[in-house]
Specification:
By secondary structure, the chain is an alpha+beta fold. It is 41% helix and 29% strand. It has a five-stranded antiparallel β-sheet. The protein has a three-stranded antiparallel β-sheet with strand order 8-9-10. A two-stranded antiparallel sheet has the order 1-2.
């Protein structure tokens, strides 16, 4: 505020501006050094409040879903996933494995494709390959795991290359090893 007053008064007498400029710079730097830690502390407090709110939010799951006979007591006990939970900001999506069309690798993350949309999860393809039902999901490429029920057809794509066309119209390339596994699992 005092800077504004100073510069307005300098419009009246601009000769004094250059004589007082070093003092103004020193005063500005001191104000910055005093106020910066305070602003940083306020920002950390607000960030802690947001984190507490995110942790305290509850997930609404119906009692029917929890007492469903087709879900195991614990997913870790059976080793096979029945649903995948994905945190999206303050919301948590629960995706049943039956709704998955395919999974695509994105570095250390994967993108899960369902009929309702795409979801990013911080897991590896190796994790999903070992925890998804083996009869229902096939890893056709190092970057793709597909649901066997979503396969529409397998097409020849170039010399000894194959692509898998899904029911939703997406075509995914199958590696040689993935094609062999696909033939084995589908009994071709």
């Amino acid at each position: 505020m005092w800077f504004l007053f100073f510069y307005i008064t300098q419009l009246i007498n601009p000769d004094e501006l250059w004589t007082q400029l070093p003092f103004q710079l020193i005063a500005g730097i001191l104000c910055f050094l005093i106020l910066f830690p305070w602003y940083e502390k306020q920002w950390q407090k607000s960030r802690e409040r947001v984190d507490k709110v995110e942790e305290s939010e509850t997930i609404n799951i119906s009692t029917e879903e929890l007492s469903s006979p087709n879900l195991p007591e614990s997913q870790e006990e059976s080793g096979v996933l029945q649903r995948i939970s994905i945190k999206d900001g303050s919301r948590i999506h629960l995706i049943p494995v039956e709704e998955l069309h395919y999974i695509e690798a994105c570095g250390d993350y994967v993108t899960l494709f369902t009929s309702s949309g795409q979801y990013v999860k911080e897991q590896t393809m190796k994790y999903f390959e070992s925890h998804l039902p083996e009869k229902e999901f096939i890893r056709i490429h190092r970057s793709h795991i597909i649901a066997a029920g979503q396969i529409l057809r397998i097409e020849l794509f170039g010399k000894e290359s194959y692509q898998v066309r899904l029911k939703n119209g997406i075509s995914l390339r199958a590696s040689n090893g993935g094609y062999k596994l696909l033939k084995q699992r589908l009994g071709l």
